[in-house]
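Revision sheet: structure tokens.
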Amino acid sequence: MEILKQIKSRLAEAYGSRLKAVVLYGSEARGDSEPDSDIDVLVVLDGEIRLGEDVVKIIDVLYPLQLKVFRPIHALPVSAADYAAGEYALYRNAKRQGVPA
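Predicted:
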């Protein structure tokens, strides 16, 4: 999927080695999205998530891409440790059904 590659490329440029994975989940990953559906991704980062800083950075990085594809991109930062532990149902579902970039 081209959009997922673009998302990962932009995030890799912004985060460098701190970016561990980008995982598509939700309707786009399941294959039942509509043309105007949002694009949901987990942004798996090394180290502790600095919520305010990381969310703002992700928005800044991905906003131009949203304008290009005319679809909202919802990107949620998550620590690699929390994602690996699968503490939340969202993380477990993304591991099972998600599409890694």
